[in-house]
Amino acid sequence: MRLPMFLYFATQLFMRKTVILLTSILLSALAFAGFASTSAEIVSRKETATFWRYNFRYETTDVDGKTPIVLSAAIFMSRQVHDKEYKAPGCAILNHYTITGNCEAPTNVYGIFSFEGFLQQSNYFIVESDGIGFGITSKRSQPYLSGRVTARNNIDAFIAARSLLAAEGFEFGDIVLNLGYSQGGHSGMWVSRLVEEGYRAEELPRIDLAMLGGGPYDLQATYNQIVDSQNSLYPVAIPLIVGGYLSSEGANAKYEDFFLPDFVMRLPQWFESKESSSGELNGQICYVFGGSRENGVAVSSFVSADFLNRNSDLMRRMSAWLDENSLVSSAWCPSKTERMAFVHSRIDEVVPYINMESLAGFLSANGYDNFAVIDNSERSHTQTGMMYVMAVLQQLETYQPMRLAAANIDYHNSPQLFDVEDAEGNQVMSGVTVAEIYQSLPSGEYSINGFPFYK
Hints:
Elements: H1 5-37, E1 41-47, E2 51-61, E3 68-78, H2 79-82, E4 88-95, H3 115-119, E5 125-129, H4 147-167, E6 172-181, H5 183-197, E7 207-213, H6 219-229, E8 231-232, H7 237-249, H8 255-258, H9 261-264, H10 267-272, H11 278-288, E9 297-298, H12 305-308, H13 313-325, E10 337-343, H14 354-365, E11 371-374, H15 381-396, H16 402-405, E12 418-422, E13 427-432, H17 434-440, E14 445-448, E15 451-454
Helix pairs in contact: 4-5
């Protein structure tokens, strides 16, 4: 039986609208389900030689500050805290230093001789994001030294981690630490800046102590040092800085504008593969382009003339990005960070000391004087990094924020102690801290409390 024409069209219109409505509902449901399924969750728990590491995923935003993205991160904790023998005084944001290989990503760190391995000795929970470009986003380029992007990702990881730890039944004090060395020093200052601006203020209203070191706080000064010296002891940083610019602001530029063809040809193997550490890449660049680890490399051997010309159209465009991501180019004051301390070597060959001088002068000029600078190191950038970690551990042995000191709250715990055996099973150290192991133990193959490790 055939329907009258008007009923036929009415039926077709009703069916089309019904399909559209149902499709819309279905897509909305899927979108909601997808969003809900990416909420913060612990994906693995691993015991290492000296600490526990919980890998987790969390929601944050992409480089545009709007698009949702899921990143990976890790929580490091001492065995004493994990076993709930001690209550952690609080949690620390650890802003990671320059990494280029997936093996260096925080969710892959397991060794005692690492920033994470040392810092968990403080008995704080240490929270560190892989950031964009590593972990589950390893096929992407990292927005290197893009301060606002990285700080936002790190703060989001920190807030997610505290919720996950509470859900796991851990109790901890509300002290908030902000830590980081080298690139992490730059990111850490950006964390304090975002907290000052009120980013997620209800969940992170303040920072008690920021201890940072070796950071490129003044990117223009770092660039100027490269141009003035025509040499770089850390050439790996140059393509990373350019990559950070291109990932966020480089719509009108490409790698070929910044580097010579022989260098551009090597970028996929060296950087996009994420197979080598930053130290290994630095050595390869020096070797291929006629330099050495000790004396660096002439930057004109691999960068373009436009890159070395401050007045070129290319660098005028990039300079705006350098200023935008520097900490000293626009007025602000970290008044929501109770105290700051910095470690920087005056002979730093990677991040010139001018960065520390610029930042110290900037903070004073903007009305913040509750900071200290430790600059008595006569060591390299990397060696001063270990001095930075020891300074953090020493500070945290007795640290207590002013707001808690008045209430006489004491969270301090005894450091975790270890027994060390050599490869033959002979005990070589007993009842020692990680710092004592690092300072006294010769290189070799050992086991710590039964777990194998190499120094």
